[in-house]
Amino acid sequence: MTDYPRASLLTDKPENSVESLVRHATDNHVSTFTLNRPESLNAITPDLRERLIQLFSEASADPEVRAVVLTGTGRGFCAGADLRGGGATGERIPGDVARTLRLGAQRLIAAVLDCEKPVIAAVNGTAAGLGAHLALACDLVLAAEPARFIEVFVRRGLVPDGGGAYLLPRLLGPQRAKELMFFGDALTAPDAERLGLVNRVVPADELAKTARAWADRLAAGPTRALALTKHLVNTSLDTDRATAFAAEAAAQEINMTTADSREGVSSFVERREPRFRGR
């Protein structure tokens, strides 16, 4: 995979440190998070999960970050939860599984959905199980031609978790979602694009460049308006029309107090390109 830009804000960490599990660079208002466990196709350990949650929380609150790109090193985007630690077997106390999901995988997906900055998934390879849901929780999904999406849970005799039964019906409708989850077949990147799971499929050597170009456009946009738009869209399918309309009106009321909204109107009147500052 093409390397993403390394910025002055990137600090090299020992390969066995928690920080090394996710490479983090911020350049020209774009933060890039790169999953960095290529030997396991970037399978998610508890430490990696917590690091990602922290990074999304920090990006959400940092006014200098105006867009995020999420990608992976090596051949895989993310192979899902790392089950090799032995936590998936053995005796359990009732409530352990539900508690683990609430505090773990569900928090991770929520961190992406709730991030106040637009998030682009640059899917460089296989995205399976929780890894597929991590990509699909992002606002925009770019996929390299070799990428595949796999609802692998049924192959392990498991119920889809990590928000899968929430995300997929909203993206595909219930019947298509059930087809993917019931059979667990690998979905190629072109098929994912055809179904609407992926915004665009690009050659592998163009993935990084395309993701960066999209992120730069988003980072130059009206950041608060994008955050409010993301919230309205993400909540629209869970509300009735009256509630959605009220939320829309409230969001526009809030947005009209921002400097970027004033700049947008001024630039229209003055017939020039707007210069948004993310404020």
TrEMBL record:
Pfam families per UniProt: ECH_1
Stored CDD domains: crotonase-like
Source superkingdom: Bacteria
Protein family membership: Belongs to the enoyl-CoA hydratase/isomerase family.
Protein name: Enoyl-CoA hydratase-related protein
